[in-house]
Amino acid sequence: MAEGPDLSFFDLRTVHDHFDQALVENDDVDLKAYLEAYNELYKFFQLMGSVFSFVSSDLKQKIDVLTDLINKNTQNYTTIKSMIEYERENKLLEKADFVNGSRTLLRLHRGLDFIREFLQQLNDLTDIDKTVCCCQDAYNKTLAKHHSWVIRKAAIVAMYTMPTREALFKKVCGENVQRNIDVLPKMLEVTADVFNRTDSIYKTYQLHTLP
């Protein structure tokens, strides 16, 4: 009998399965499945500790905001497209006292760009390679352009404490390192599909510049 994941550690199979479920018809993305995958990714940031505080500090809050919107208005917050259309039609994108889902998801989308780029580069390293350079490179290519100079500087400095690839996987995956390494390529593939589809939806509705 195959050993299941340790729920206290990060599991890439869980991310893969939820993102796979998120890819629904009409080139849309199921919000609930997206957030379930993201909750597992958030566990990765938590297990890494303060080194990733520049990205994890408000991820949980944004996941909670979207989960609350889904629970209160399931009909209109089923997929990314249904959410955007509902908020646009009801002028919620411009409403000052409303934390809209479209803007909140855009922040998660940017975070996903970083984590998939980082894991992609991690996949190409050997066990003894340090992860600092690929982490800094992934950050500079993605999230850095959305952060202030102060946050960028602090993030780059914090990354100097990053361990080797082997130590990193042990820290976040516990005893299930090989299970996670085996599923990583497939997880990256489906994550790219979800990211690209989400990106395309935001381009279609011209919402990439939401403040």
From TrEMBL:
One of its GO terms (cellular component) is cytosol. Residues 29-173 form the Glycolipid transfer protein domain. Coiled coil: none annotated. GO terms for molecular function: ceramide 1-phosphate binding; ceramide 1-phosphate transfer activity. One of its GO terms (biological process) is negative regulation of interleukin-1 beta production. InterPro entries: GLTP_sf (IPR036497), Glycolipid_transfer_prot_dom (IPR014830). Pfam families: GLTP. Belongs to the GLTP family. PANTHER family: GLYCOLIPID TRANSFER PROTEIN DOMAIN-CONTAINING PROTEIN, GLYCOLIPID TRANSFER PROTEIN-RELATED. This is Glycolipid transfer protein domain-containing protein. The lineage of its organism: Eukaryota, Metazoa, Ecdysozoa, Arthropoda, Hexapoda.
